[in-house]
Design brief:
The structure is a single chain. This protein is of the alpha/beta class. The chain contains 6 helices and 7 strands, in the order βαβαβαβαβαβαβ. Strands 3-2-1-4-5-6-7 form a 7-stranded parallel β-sheet, sandwiched between helices. Strand 6, helix 6 and strand 7 form a beta-alpha-beta unit. The longest helix is centred in the middle third of the chain and has 29 residues. Bound molecules: NADPH dihydro-nicotinamide-adenine-dinucleotide phosphate.
Length: 229
């Protein structure tokens, strides 16, 4: 059973990814800060598919915590096949609002959080000539609106990291997928019910993750953009 770490798995898209992958023969390691939510989801997954899920309480913007978690997962389960950088925050993002604390948090979680875990799992993946990094960016990583400036900057950065990894990881056997969702029905997107169309479900993004993971090993799905219809 391949082991996959999913950050931001205590809610929303990350939770849906964990449940979806556990249902499809992957061992899932759920990572986030809220221990109660993580424990509840992990228990529910294990009730359905015994010994499939574990969780770690980690702040992805804290490099030491991320490193300790990765070492513990290697110790407990051996090879880490996949690492899904999903943890993210969307806070006050207009430069004209000047909310520097929010910008720092978005930069720390969305950008540094993505880089820390990725850089720590890649050396073993390269040695094994096998592995898969999946980054959850956003359509805000392709387009900027009046209210998304700094959030978009962090999501453009996630996409830049993915595009750089396409080059760095080419011909190594390690795959990289960048997923850019549009509006998804989770707590992150407070305006989701004001849209004049149905937002995506978190499971729709989990389906994209499973699609990328389940391709034959010579197929590298680099970019998926998933928008509400
Ligand atoms: P939610 O707010 O529902 O979930 C966010 C998750 O990230 C939670 O599990 C939260 O857990 C975790 N998280 C936040 N900060 C940290 C941290 N410092 N360390 C570890 N975990 C953290 O949001 P979504 O599920 O909607 O978002 C998931 C990803 O999808 C994000 O990267 C977001 O930018 C992206 N996205 C979302 C869209 C949407 O419309 N919802 C659209 C496009 C992209 P906890 O609080 O327990 O730490």
């Amino acid at each position: 059973m391949k082991t996959i770490i999913i950050t931001g798995a205590s809610a929303g898209i990350g939770e849906a990814i964990a449940r979806k992958l556990a249902n499809n023969n992957y061992r899932v390691v759920l990572v986030a800060r809220n221990k109660e939510k993580l424990a509840k989801i992990t228990d529910e997954i294990n009730e359905k598919s015994p010994d499939t899920a574990a969780y770690y309480q980690v702040d992805v913007s804290d490099k030491a915590e991320v490193e300790a978690m990765i070492n513990q997962v290697k110790n407990d389960y051996g090879t880490i096949y996949g690492y899904i950088n999903n943890a993210g925050v969307m806070l006050s993002a207009e430069v004209t609002q000047g909310d520097i604390e929010s910008w720092d948090q978005m930069i720390d979680v969305n950008i540094k959080g993505t880089l820390y875990g990725t850089s720590l799992v890649i050396p073993d993946m390269l040695e094994n000539k096998s592995g898969h990094i999946i980054n959850i960016s956003s359509v805000s990583g392709h387009e900027v609106t009046k209210i998304s400036t700094v959030y978009s900057a962090t999501k453009f950065a996630v996409r830049a990291i993915s595009q750089g990894l396409e080059k760095e990881l080419a011909k190594t056997g390690v795959r990289i997928t960048n997923i850019s969702p549009g509006m998804v029905d989770t707590d992150l997107a407070p305006d989701r019910h004001k849209m004049n169309r149905k937002p995506l479900e978190a499971e729709d993004i989990a389906n994209g993750v499973l699609y990328a993971l389940n391709q034959p090993s010579y197929v590298n799905v680099n970019e998926l953009t998933i928008r509400p219809n």
